[in-house]
Amino acid sequence: MTKIRIVYFLFVFLFFKGLIPDLQAQNNQPITILANQVAYNLEGPKTAIIKSNQAIISGTSFHIIDEPHRRIVYSGKVGQSEQVIDWDPDVWYRRIDFSAFHQSGNFKLQVTIDGTKYESCEFKVEEQALGKIAIPAIVNFFNKQRANSPEELEADKAILLYGSDKTVDLQGGWCDASGDISKYFSHLAYTNFMSPQQIPMVTWSLINTTVRVPELLKQIGVQEALTNEAIYGADYLMRSLSPEGYFYMTVFSYFDKNPKARRVVGLLADSKTTSDYQCAYREGGGIAVAALARISQWEKDGDFTSKQYLDAAEQAFAHLQKFSTKYADDGKDNVIDDYCALMAATELWIATGKDVYRDEARQRASNLNKRLSPEGYFIANDSNRPFWHAADAGLPIMALARFLDKETDQTFRNIALATIKTAIDYNLKVTKEVVNPFGYARQSFLFKGKVQGGFFIPHENESGWWWQGEDARLGSLAAAIIVGGRLVYPDKAPFGVKPELAVYAENLVSWVLGCNPYNMCMMYGYGQNNVPYMASMFGHGSGRGGISNGITGKDGKGDGSGIDFKVEDNGNEWRWSEQWIPHTGWFLQAVTAMSMK
What we know:
The protein is α+β, with helices and mostly antiparallel strands. It contains 16 helices and 20 strands.
C-alpha cells in the first residue's frame, strides 16, 4: 500500500552512467521501438509499438532479428501512424503486429528509418513463456516479501489493538509495498468505493494458480514453493480472525523504526488511525473467507489444519452476514461487497455443498447483474457512480466465473453469463472509443457530477489524496477477459478466446512488461529498463519479480487525463515506482490465464 507519509521511503539510486533509466533521454529519441521486454507466448498475440517524433511513412517494414546470430527471421509492415493527443501532441505511434511469427528463441525488432537502424530490447518467444518466467519470479517475490524479520516477528507476537491494552498474535503475512512494511486486508475503507483486496486476494491468487496450471508448475519446479506460499498466506488469515468472528483489517507500522509502534488499526486519510479495524465484506473479509474455504479442500496442514481453515471460513461468513454492513463506513452494501461476498459464498458452496452458501452466491450474482448500467459498466452505488477500480477492476468477472465452476442450474447460469458478456463487451467498447494504439484498458468514472471515460483513474476522488499507477487493474482485467471470455466467447484461438479478447489481454501484459510510452518494464529485475531500487525498514524493499505501480494520468490533472511516469519527484516517486502486492498478485492471475490449456 502507498501512503502520503513517506518519511521512511529510502530510494537507493545508482549514480553510475546507464544504471538509472533516463526517461527524458528516452522520450527525446527520434525513434524507439517499444516491446514487451520479457517474453511473448509462442501461440499468443505479439505486438509492439514504434514511438517517433514524426509520422512514419506508409509501407515501412520491420524485421525480427534472431539473437545472438543477428539473422532476419521474419519481416512485415508496420501499422498506420497514430497520435494520442491527450498524452502528447508531438508523439506518433505505429503498431507492429508479429502474431504470425512462430519461432522459439531470443529476438529483437528492427526498423530502418531514413537510413538509420533502430532496435527494440531483447525478448524471448517460447511456448508458455510468460508463465515459465513470471510464475517463479512472483513466487520468489512473495517469499521475500514475508513479514518475517526478527523485529517484525517479535513485535507481532503481541501487537496492541488501537485504543486498547489488549494484544493479539498477528505474525506472518506479507509487507504491503516496497516502501511500506504494514500489512493490510484492505485500505481506503473509508472511501467506500475504492477498497482494494490485498493480503486475502494474494492468498486466493496463489491458491488459484496452484490449482489451474499444475502441469506447468511441475515442469518449472515451483509447485511445492507456490503451495507453501499459499498456505503461509492462509495461516496469516487464520491469525487475523478474532474470537468474535471478524478479521482484523490492518497492522500499521506508522512508518516508525520502532517495531513496538505497530498497532492493529482502521485507517483514514493522511495515515490517521482508528479502532475501526473490523473487516466488512469489501474490506478484505469476503476474499479472506474465500481463500480459507478454497485452501481447506487441499487437505494440507500449515500451522493450522485443513478442517480449521474451513471452520474459520464458515464462522467468518456467518459473522459477516450479520455485521458486514455495520462495519462498512456508509452502513450499506455496494458493488464491492457483492463481488467479495459472491466469492466467499461460492468457495464455501464448493467446499461444503451447503444450500445456505448456494443461495447467497445466487443472490450476489443476481445483484451484480442488476448493477449493470445500460452502457455496460457496473454501478458502484445505488445511484449513478460507475464502478472503477485501480486494482480490482476484473474481480467482478472473476467472481462470476468462479461461481459458474459450481452452478449448474441453467437459469442462474444464464444470468451470470449475461453479466460477464455485458461487462466484457463494455470493456472492449470503452477501450476502442478513442485512438488507442497500445490498447490500454480505458474506464468510465464520475468526475464533477459527469460520467466520462479516460485512460487513468481520476486523481480527485473519494480518498482525498490516493492515486497511483494501475498495473493491478491491468492484470485483473487481462485475467478476467480470458477467464470470462472462455465462458462467453470461446474459441480455438490462443488463450481459448476469440482473437479480439486475446489481443486485449496481451496488450495489458505487454504494457506492464515494457511496451508502454516510457519503455519501462515494471517487473523488477526483468527486462532492460526498471525503476530505481526502493529500500525499506527491517531489510525490506524492492523485490525481484515484483510489479511497480506504473503509469498514471498527468500529475496535477484532477480527472486523470494526460500521462505521467516519474522515477524522481521529491519523495512522491512512490505513485509510479513503488511495488505493491496487488499488482504482483493480479499479474500472477493474468499469466496463469494465459498459461491454461
